[in-house]
Amino acid sequence: MGKMAAASDVNANAKASSYEAYMSRVGNEKIPCYEPSLGDDEIKLLTDVIRRNWLSESKYTREFESRLAVLCERKHALAFSNATAALIVGMKSLGIGPGDEVIVQSFTHPADPNSIAATGATAVFADVDEKTLCLSVKTIEAAMTKKTKAILYVDLYGNSGDIAAVADYAKKNNLFLVNDCAAALRSSCNGRQVASFGDFAVLSFFADKTITTGEGGMLLTDSPALLAECNIYKHDGRKERGVDLIERKGFNFRITELQSAVGVAQLGKLSYFIKIKKEILREYQQRLSEVREVSVFRFSPDCDAVPHRVVIFVPDAAALISYLTPLGVGVRTTFMPMHSQPVYKVRKEFPVTEKLYATGVCLPSAPTLTGDRISFICTAIADFYSKGGGK
Ligand SMILES: Cc1ncc(COP(=O)(O)O)c(C=O)c1O
């Protein structure tokens, strides 16, 4: 017993110290990778919620949902505590579960395979197309089996090169299409909102997203039947709040009225955020155009993408990150491939995914980022390569 207590103390201390190290690194960043832009509009609506003394979903949640449905060209929107919850509930409501396979890119956020696993289905990983960072019909075909029930398409970093072709492919093969637009609010392809594709799409409002509620998510669909089923799973398995009978083994995945009020206030600034994110990307592109070792990720030409992150590809991502971090620049790796995560490890090789992880770096891109700071970052990158670039 004494020994067990000592071992768990060591574990707890190790956890606390790695968390502290992370917080201290992030706290020491002079230029944050991302930061939310909140102010008087959010304070005003939050004050209204507090004065009305009703903190669970109410009028701001309904307004947040209906405005997002319109912006995403969808019939229905349902708010969630986060995008992961929306993915779990959406897939369960489609009937995806044990024995089913869902194809998803390995180069993505853990929420994707985790939500598939939470339904009882199996995530089957696929490589991505190097130009789009997303699945393509070719990479999907390589992962298809008789058990494939759905494709989980991820509009990575706001990009969605082949979504229309993937939607056609899903339809022809009688597969569900789940569309993870967590980071792609208001991105469009050939004039169509990307969140309008798929049996359902999800958005995330985590602190680094185009609009934020701290944590938060939204499910978007055109199907009233799917909406009704999702609503049951989201509200503890009950048809409505106040009803005792539970019809499903559900969850409490509700957002709060405080978060929704922040979301409504953020919607008022959405056009500004989109404009500034595109300007930041253009400025990086111009300033880094002369640095031979760097290529700034170019969003698909058919898409009017809202860049979630500014991603660059360089010969060795780890070397550049080690150089920029002590200068106070908040840089991050791209997504660690899911097929190499111990809990999902598979013996397959995904060469494009592995290359993108080894070479990709996310640069600071918050709307608060000034031109001077972009200039500082780009000069530091140019200096690094003029000095031999970690060789
Ligand atoms: C592509 C992608 N999918 C899903 C998620 C999960 O979103 P949430 O944290 O709201 O559950 C994220 C979050 O960053 C993401 O980037």
Explain this structure:
By secondary structure, this protein is an alpha/beta fold. The chain folds into 2 domains: 40-267, Type I PLP-dependent aspartate aminotransferase-like (Major domain) (Aspartate Aminotransferase, domain 2), CATH 3.40.640.10; 270-386, Aspartate Aminotransferase, domain 1. Helix content is 41%, strand content 14%. It contains 13 helices and 14 strands. The chain has helices at residues 2-27, 40-52, 59-71, 83-93, 111-119, 137-141, 163-172, 224-234, 257-267, 270-288, 317-324, 351-359, 371-386; strands at 76-80, 101-105, 122-126, 148-154, 176-180, 188-189, 192-193, 200-204, 217-221, 295-296, 303-304, 310-313, 332-333, 360-363. The chain has a 7-stranded mixed beta sheet with strand order 1-9-8-5-4-2-3, with helices on both faces. A hairpin with a 2-residue loop joins strand 6 and strand 7 (192-193). Helix 2 (40-52) runs antiparallel to helix 9 (257-267) and helix 4 packs across helix 8 (224-234). Mean pLDDT is 94; it is low at 1-5. It binds pyridoxal-5'-phosphate. Pyridoxal-5'-phosphate is lined by residues 82-84, 108-109, 111-112, 154, 180, 182-183, 204, 206, 217.
TL;DR?
This protein is 41% helix and 14% strand. It has 13 helices and 14 strands.
Order of helices and strands: HHHEHEHEHEHEEEEEHHHEEEHEHEH
Secondary structure: number of strands: 14
* Fraction in beta strands: 5-15%
Question: CATH architecture of the largest domain, please?
Answer: 3-Layer(aba) Sandwich
What's the CATH class of the largest domain, please?
Alpha Beta
Which strand order does the major sheet show? 1-9-8-5-4-2-3
